[in-house]
C-alpha cells in the first residue's frame, strides 16, 4: 500500500541557530499510513539557515532571493505542500518555540476527518517565558478574531497549524507581512472546521522575534479589514454541523 504524505513546513528567516533543532525533533514515523517530509521556506535569510536545514535532514528547501515576509512564506509553504503531493500539511515556526513532538496531537483531528484546520494552542496548554505585553497583544488579537467570527478562539497567533489538503488548496493570505489572523478569518469563513489542541510553548532562547509593535498593528489591522471585506464562498466541508446548512 502506498503511504499518504504529511509535509511539515517551516517559514524561516535567519534561524541558523534554531532550525536544526526543530527539524531534528520532527517525528518521522508516528503513523503507519503516512510518510513525513520536511520543507523549509527560507525567506531570503542572510545567515546559514539553508546549510543548517540541509545538514539537519530537510527534504525540500525553497529559497526566496529577497525577504518577502512571513505571510508570503506561509502562502508559498501551502502551495509547495500541494505541489509536492501532501495529503496533510503542518506549519511550525523555525525558532524552536513550538513542540514538534506534538505534531501528532495537532494533526489527530485532521487525520480522523473531524477538522480541516487545527492550531497548537498555547493558551489551552502551557506557556513558558511569554512577556506580559506579548500576552496582552495575543489576547487582544485573538478576541478580535473571535468577535469577527462569532466563535471562541483561544490562540489566534499560534505558529503551529495543521491543514487538510482541501484547506491548503483554498486558503487565501491577503498580505505578505503576516498570516496569523487573516488565514483563520479566511478558512473559517469558508466553512472549514477549526479545532485547537493544547500544546507546550517555550519562548525562544536564541535569535530575536521579528515583531515590532507599531509595524505589527499598522500591517495587521488593515489586512484584517481587507480580508473581512472579501466575499468568500462557503465550501461544503461539513454539511452536518455547518450552521448555514443546518436547516437544509
Ligand atoms: N518568512 C519569514 N519568516 C519570518 C520572518 N521573520 C521571522 N520569520 C519566521 O517566522 C517565525 C516566527 O517569527 P518570530 O520572530 O519568532 O515571531 P514570534 O514568535 O511571533 O515572536 C519564525 O519561524 C521566524 O523564522 C520574515 O521576515 N519572513
Ligand atoms: Mg517565535
Strand order of the largest sheet: 3-2-1-4-6-5-7
Q: Specify the structural class.
A: alpha/beta
Count of alpha and pi helical runs:
8
Uncertain residue segments: 241-248
- Number of domain units: 1
Distance between the termini: 39 Å
String of helices and strands: EHEHEHEHEHEHHEH
Largest sheet composition? 7 strands, mixed
CATH C-level label: Alpha Beta
Mean pLDDT: 94
- CATH homolog superfamily: Spore Coat Polysaccharide Biosynthesis Protein SpsA, Chain A
Walk me through what this model shows:
The longest helix is centred in the middle third of the chain and has 18 residues, at 132-149. This protein has a single domain (4-233), classed as Spore Coat Polysaccharide Biosynthesis Protein SpsA, Chain A (Alpha-Beta Complex). A 7-stranded mixed sheet has the order 3-2-1-4-6-5-7, sandwiched between helices. α1 (19-25) runs parallel beside α2 (49-56), α5 (132-149) packs parallel to α7 and α7 packs parallel to α8. The protein has 248 residues and is α/β, with parallel strands linked by helices. It has 8 helices and 7 strands. It has helices spanning 19-25, 49-56, 70-83, 103-111, 132-149, 165-170, 180-189, 213-229; strands at residues 4-12, 34-43, 60-64, 88-92, 117-128, 160-164, 194-202. Magnesium ion binds next to loops.
Amino acid at each position: 500500500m502506498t503511504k499518504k504524505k504529511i509535509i511539515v513546513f517551516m517559514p524561516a528567516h535567519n534561524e541558523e541557530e534554531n532550525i536544526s533543532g526543530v527539524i531534528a525533533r520532527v517525528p518521522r514515523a508516528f503513523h503507519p499510513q503516512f510518510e513525513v517530509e520536511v520543507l523549509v521556506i527560507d525567506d531570503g535569510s542572510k545567515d546559514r539557515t539553508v546549510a543548517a536545514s540541509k545538514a539537519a535532514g530537510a527534504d525540500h528547501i525553497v529559497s526566496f532571493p529577497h525577504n518577502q515576509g512571513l505571510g508570503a512564506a506561509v502562502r508559498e509553504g501551502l502551495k509547495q505542500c500541494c505541489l509536492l503531493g501532501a495529503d496533510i500539511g503542518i506549519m511550525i515556526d523555525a525558532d524552536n518555540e513550538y513542540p514538534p513532538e506534538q505534531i501528532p496531537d495537532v494533526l489527530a483531528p485532521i487525520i480522523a476527518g473531524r477538522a480541516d484546520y487545527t492550531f497548537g494552542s498555547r493558551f489551552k496548554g502551557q506557556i513558558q517565558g511569554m512577556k506580559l505585553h506579548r500576552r496582552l497583544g495575543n489576547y487582544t488579537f485573538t478576541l478580535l478574531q473571535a468577535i469577527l467570527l462569532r466563535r471562541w478562539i483561544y490562540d489566534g497567533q499560534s505558529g503551529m497549524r495543521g491543514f487538510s489538503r482541501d484547506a491548503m488548496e483554498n486558503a487565501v493570505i491577503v498580505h505578505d507581512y503576516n498570516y496569523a489572523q487573516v488565514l483563520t478569518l479566511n478558512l473559517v469563513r469558508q466553512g472549514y472546521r477549526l479545532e485547537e489542541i493544547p500544546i507546550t510553548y517555550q519562548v525562544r532562547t536564541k535569535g530575536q522575534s521579528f515583531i515590532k509593535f507599531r509595524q505589527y498593528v499598522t500591517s495587521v489591522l488593515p489586512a484584517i479589514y481587507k480580508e473581512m471585506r472579501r466575499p468568500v464562498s462557503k465550501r461544503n466541508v461539513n454539511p452536518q454541523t455547518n450552521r448555514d446548512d443546518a436547516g437544509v
